[in-house]
């Protein structure tokens, strides 16, 4: 077993080298193939009667009236316009190009492209070793560390308005997260795990709840099923906390069960599931007013699993410490996580700005500051606000209540409007508690960043620009052909004669380079 394991990296390395070599040589192979095809066409021009075919085609094209070319270019413009409209609609709805998405999904594997790494390795392994993680710069959509409970909080909005508070895209991302993180070891997957995998994919909440109960009937210690019930069925935070505690107890009891095969090694609880349960229990304690208990649970969780920085548990801790007004502890957490090598967030940047603004905001006056200038502490506060607004300029409008708050989503786009909503939803009260902090934010933001363009600004995909240019170009050709048919005919003939000049030059060089007898023998073959 050990020999097979030790030889596995070598085989994987050879496979990766082979794939990279094939991917590198693909372009050159295509170029050689294209050159061979052109050469064969030239060699076989006499048997294939290409010259006669081209002559007859030229005669046929010369007999066509300008109306045909107007119809041809007009139809091309219409088709490219329809493609442009569809691409624009798809981009506005899904934020990406349909043609680009299909090309990446289906053509990249054929051309030897590398698939994006799975998010399974976000968490540390059971024995404490760090598993591979995706590059931080590539991660745009993040799990909201302060996301609400569906049954106990999001459902209230549905009961009052009859509308869904979450988008299908957001819920689909959550289903993928749960399905990936809570599956556990695929070698030890059981019947209830299969049921729960299907449960996370169900669109109907009642179907998800029924599947959870079905998993519990198969195994009364199915922790993932209790997690789903706590998230989906519990209508109060107290009930959700009870179900999460039941999930934790079930997981620990299952962990003590001996392996039925070896009877030596105990089955290990899925580390991702354990961290999720403990984190949600801490959030329940925070929402129920037991803030010191919540802070202790979060600190213990961060100490037990120090490699979980990607989960942003420190953002939950910062919010709880701000509620306790333990500003020294908040500064200590910021000193650890507000580092240039770590991924930033609106919580990190704006909490740092809040602490600096709180120190000077109570006595701050814009008129007095303009007369005497800014002190060192005031300058530090202003620079901290500048830095925060530069990171996410959407936040001030929500903190200053210039835009209405909505329920935060389960996933956020870093530096986007969704992150601003999530931050302001939980931290607006902390800014209001610091007297004058919002006034300092308003003066600094309005004076410096009011005209800054919002970030992130979506760039138009290449295919939208391409189809727009193609539609405009063919429409212009149709109009010019209709207005000036003779002049356009002369222009087209000159264009094609210029285009085929290099081919004629290449053919003449081939004739002079190779003896005529050789070409004769090839054509006979």
From TrEMBL:
InterPro entries: ST7, TPR-like_helical_dom_sf
Keyword tags: Membrane, Transmembrane, Transmembrane helix
Gene Ontology cellular-component annotations: membrane
Record CDD domains: ST7 (cd11557)
Listed Gene3D superfamilies: Tetratricopeptide repeat domain
Record Pfam families: ST7
Keyword Ligase: no
Keyword check for Transmembrane helix: yes
Membrane-related topology note: Multi-pass membrane protein
Transmembrane regions listed in the UniProt entry: 21-44, 68-91, 460-481, 487-507
Domain of life: Eukaryota
Cell compartments where the protein resides: Membrane
Main location, first listed in the record: membrane
Family: Belongs to the ST7 family.
Official protein name in the record: Suppression of tumorigenicity 7 like
Gene: ST7L
